């Protein structure tokens, strides 16, 4: 039977997931498959797993329970293997790498920080503080007939938006990274200006949270933070 694989842990992990029913239309109990010094946390599945709400929640519940008991290498949603032999072969093949990763992530959790800047407030700042854009805007409002003015203003404003948001993202990253053992900056999506993952050790979590809260107060209503965590260290599994 095919297996859905949630995570990899070490043999000394308490594995407090025995009462959890796994993913799928005909869910089976979550269990541990041992192979040498490692466990794969799995459940039997009989069909392709799609990202339905219940299954996503079960996947995350398993990860969070495992995280409470010690270091874990969480797999992204949807990973399946053909059978137990396939999982055991994968564990044996890279046992040293998995063990090194578990040691590296021991005592750490992931936090994810996204930031969004109020566009209207940013545009007002640019028109108020940048001589070039202020002059162009004043000429348009005064009725200057030059047809190139709106395009020139749009380009100037767009350049200022990129420059200011890049600078803000870099500043936020520089302020938070010192509290993390590792970090990962990814391209921001949508209207966000920051997409930052941080691996934070238990002994620095309060410092990190205090620093993040301080940034929120310092920047005020113009910047919206979305902090997720503590999370299993998805972004730092190598």
TrEMBL record:
<dbReference type="Pfam" id="PF06386">
    <property type="entry name" value="GvpL_GvpF"/>
</dbReference>
<protein>
    <submittedName>
        <fullName>Gas vesicle protein</fullName>
    </submittedName>
</protein>
<dbReference type="InterPro" id="IPR009430">
    <property type="entry name" value="GvpL/GvpF"/>
</dbReference>
<dbReference type="GO" id="GO:0031411">
    <property type="term" value="C:gas vesicle"/>
</dbReference>
<comment type="similarity">
    <text>Belongs to the gas vesicle GvpF/GvpL family.</text>
</comment>
<keyword id="KW-0304">Gas vesicle</keyword>
<dbReference type="GO" id="GO:0031412">
    <property type="term" value="P:gas vesicle organization"/>
</dbReference>
